C-alpha cells in the first residue's frame, strides 16, 4: 500500500464522519421544530378545557409579617400600671378576643361599691382606643366613650348594673363586648352572665356570654331573660 492510498482512506473516513455529524444535526433541528409547532396546539387544547396556561415561576407574594389577632408581646403601658389585672373583650376580625388591662380599685371598698367601680373601669377600658400594637394586630372597639354605670334600683337584684344607656340602644358589637367583659369579671357573679339595665325604670335582664356570641358578635344577640329580685 502506498502513502497516497493511506491518505485517501483517512480522507474517506473523515468524509464519512462529517456526513454522519451533519445527519445527526439535521434530525435535532427537525425534532425541535416539531416541538415548537406543537406548543400553540397545546395552548389551544388547554384553553378549550378551561385551563389557562401560566408562566413559571408564579409569584404568590410575600409572607404576612404578623398573624392577625396575635400580639407578639404584652402592652408595656398596661404592665406599668398598678391596679387589679383584668381582661376586656375587643373586636378582632369578626369575633371577640381578650386583651389585658388594669383597673384601679381603692383598698377597703365594700363589695357592692367595688362591683360598680370595677364595672366602670372596664367600660372605660373598653371605650379607650386600643394601643398601637393592638391596632396593628387588628383590634378595634365599638363601645362608646362616656358610658357610665351605676348600682341597682330599689327593686332590682343586688347584682344589677344600670348602664347610662339602655342595652338595646347599643350596637350589637358594643353590647357583645360589654356583656362578655362584665360577665367574666368581679363586677358579676362569675357564672358567665351579668344583669344589665338602662337608666330608666325598665326591668333589668340577665345576659349570657356564649361561644356563639364571642364568635359572631355582629349577628348574634346575647341570650337574656328578665331578672327579678328574689
Q: Could you characterize the architecture of this molecule?
A:
- The protein is α+β, with helices and mostly antiparallel strands.
- Helices cover 40% and strands 17% of the residues.
- Helix 3 runs antiparallel to helix 5.
- The longest helix is centred in the N-terminal third of the chain and has 46 residues, at 3-48.
Précis, in short:
The chain has 230 residues and is α+β, with helices and mostly antiparallel strands. It has helices spanning 3-48, 76-80, 111-127, 132-137, 172-183, 211-215, and strands at residues 84-92, 95-103, 139-140, 149-150, 160-163, 193-197, 205-208, 224-226.
Order of helices and strands: HHEEHHEEEHEEHE
Q: How are the strands of the biggest sheet laid out side by side? A: 4-5-6-7-8
Mean pLDDT: 78
Helical segment count: 6
**So what's the overall shape?**
globular
* Contiguous uncertain segments of 5+ residues: 2-31, 42-66
User: What is the rounded Rg?
Assistant: 38 Å
Number of strands: 8
Helix content: 25-40%
Structural class: alpha+beta
What is the strand content? Answer: 15-25%
C-alpha end-to-end distance: 133 Å
Major beta-sheet overview: 5 strands, mixed
Give me some keywords for this one:
230 residues; alpha+beta; five-stranded mixed beta sheet; three-stranded antiparallel beta sheet; 8 strands
